[in-house]
Design goal:
The protein has 244 residues and is an alpha/beta fold.
């Protein structure tokens, strides 16, 4: 069942059970009652990433506080994605965009990965988590990607589970179309690695291509910005071997 985009959607960090009363955070109550001007009894949709989607009824308590009375389930929780997304952090505005689009594309986990040419060497976890939740609320997703701790590429690879296929976007890879390579991948547990502006260093490409669990794919004949390349690669993977 597709999402109902006529109703506002709210993420609640609480179990969702019909008949229960869940208090809203102060900023959520302000948004619903002051910004949206919803009145007592207004209907919204709620989700928590675990219990599917439910309808809920607004129950104000004064001018600044409110609860939501949880109603019936409107959509069941889907199976968790088996695709992880690893990316080199970009400048802040484009970083927000990248995390939002990865959430919309239905990845299971988002992990900032520091490489030789990474532009940022520190990320704001709170900001990234807020972008993930906002994107999930707006696009109708019920699954919320986990946010992995930022890690250096070498550390990531040293602890890698070889049963999980790592798809590596290699700007030096011969060929223009990744579809044939992706179609030959048999594993279902996957991860996609996208590099920074300027791409991976030669040292990193040598390390990655030597690993048996890594599959390099080309990015095509065009020069793409890192955030554009990430969305294009996510689309290709989900269309070919994902849960599109």
């Amino acid at each position: 069942m597709r999402a109902n985009y006529k109703l506002h959607r709210i993420y609640l960090d609480a179990p969702l059970c019909k008949g229960s009363l869940v208090p809203l955070r102060r900023e959520q109550a302000h948004y619903l009652m002051t910004v949206l001007r919803l009145a007592d009894g207004a209907e919204v949709l709620v989700f928590n990433g675990r219990d599917g989607e439910h309808d809920a009824t607004l129950k104000p308590e004064g001018r600044k506080s409110a609860n939501l009375e949880i109603g019936a389930q409107t959509r069941e929780q889907p199976a968790q994605s088996r695709l992880d997304f690893l990316f080199a952090p970009l400048k802040v505005g484009r970083l927000d965009y990248l995390v939002q689009k990865a959430t919309e594309m239905g990845v299971r986990r988002i992990t900032p990965t520091f490489t030789d040419h990474t532009q940022l060497h520190k990320v704001n976890d709170g900001r990234l988590a807020a972008n993930i939740l906002e994107a999930a609320e707006q696009c109708g997703n019920l699954s919320i990607p986990d946010l992995g701790e930022a890690v250096k590429l070498e550390a990531l690879l040293s602890d890698w589970d070889p049963a999980r296929r790592l798809i590596f976007c290699n700007e030096s890879q011969v060929g223009n179309n990744p579809a044939r390579i992706l179609n030959d991948i048999e594993e279902k547990d996957l991860a996609l690695l996208v590099g920074p502006e300027g791409g991976f260093s030669e040292r990193e490409r040598e390390i990655l291509t030597a690993l048996p669990f890594v599959t390099p794919i080309p990015l095509g004949p065009r020069i793409l910005r890192a955030d554009t390349a990430a969305v294009a690669a996510l689309t290709a993977v989900q269309m070919t071997i994902g849960d599109w």
